[in-house]
Amino acid sequence: MAASFHLFFIIFLSGFAAFPIFSFVYANANTTQHSWTPINHHLYHSGEGLIEKIKSLVHRHPDKLTVETIQAGTKDYKADITVVTYSQNWEQSGDKSKLRILLSFGQHARELISSELALRILSALGEEQFPPEMDPASLHDTLENVVIKIVPMENLNGRKIVDAGELCERRNGRGVDLNRNWAVNWGKKEKDYDPAEEYPGTAPFSEPETQIMREIAVSFNPHIWVNVHSGTNGLFMPYDHKKSTPDGLPSQRMRELLDELNVLYCSKRCLVGSGGTAVGYLAHGTATDYMYDVVRVPMAFTFEIYGDDKASGADCFKMFNPIDQTTFKRVMDQWCASFFTLFKLGPVCLM
């Protein structure tokens, strides 16, 4: 393998959690405020525009969807997070026998494709745009006994910075990586730590975004958690902060589910396993590790839905997001279908 390709292969894995060895590439990109490929506004909404479109969709389907905005912060920094809840029967939405699923998108600001997938999934839940090869009756049966909460854009403040032209920004509105601000193994820094990429904040849950997400998770008590990113194609389970997976049957079931999704939707090309092992570096203070170890979510995952292995490390929009209609549609169809398979297989795996 040529040395230049090997270098880039390592760099492009950074969508899930910044790869510190080569994060100077991103630091330089943030400093120069330059990215080679601009946002394709024919494919992508602005952050605020996407949230408004989601709210309009919810209002068209009050029998299935509800939306709320949760706020937190101080006088100096505030954050709003929009949360959409799906249930076929609201009278039974609090039924503890139902499978509860919590999905978060847009945690890293530059990963626009993540939040676009949230909109696509919500369109399917509203029965406006069905997943490939799924008929309405099958969709209804799959979702009859689930309650789903979707956070379409966890990091709206950071996304505003990206929309303003700083396309390599992944952190929130005051420079904190929200996927380093959780309490499990928080603050540990590898030798190649770069604060321009993965600054964890002043303390666990120092950021209003992570405070809100923790409250949602604790109150909802999900059976399945998925944190959706881009930068590569991967299906990851705990742990991110060490090169191992949990012991026992729950870990085995998580792995079996990911292996099946890899066959069905990745043609066996997705990286699969613990984040700390499969990605090739350790990430400390991540949401998925907290969900598994502290909230005790039985199945906690991170999905990486896209990465361009030919893009320059400084070309952040192209590196993390499809830039043409054909690829964009393929990613939307492929991963939307994978989530509905997850909704279907989840109850079976948890039995």
Write the SSE topology.
Blueprint: H1 3-12, H2 24-32, H3 47-60, E1 65-73, E2 78-86, E3 99-105, H4 112-125, H5 136-143, E4 146-151, H6 156-163, H7 195-198, H8 208-220, E5 224-229, E6 232-237, H9 249-265, E7 271-274, H10 275-278, H11 287-293, E8 299-306, H12 316-320, H13 325-350
Parallel strand pairs: 3-4, 3-5, 5-8, 6-7
Antiparallel strand pairs: 1-2, 2-4, 6-8
Molecular structure report:
There is one protein chain. The protein has an 8-stranded mixed beta sheet with strand order 1-2-4-3-5-8-6-7, with helices on both faces. Helix 3 runs parallel beside helix 4 and helix 9 packs antiparallel against helix 13. The chain is 40% helix and 16% strand. The chain has 13 helices and 8 strands.
Defining traits:
351 residues; alpha/beta; 8-stranded mixed beta sheet; 13 helices; 8 strands; 40% helix; 16% strand; disordered N terminus
Read across the widest sheet, the strand sequence of neighbours is 1-2-4-3-5-8-6-7
| Rg from alpha-carbon coordinates | 19 Å
**Got a strand count?**
8
N-to-C SSE series? Answer: HHHEEEHHEHHHEEHEHHEHH
Would you kindly provide a brief summary of this structure?
The chain has helices at 3-12, 24-32, 47-60, 112-125, 136-143, 156-163, 195-198, 208-220, 249-265, 275-278, 287-293, 316-320, 325-350, and strands spanning 65-73, 78-86, 99-105, 146-151, 224-229, 232-237, 271-274, 299-306.
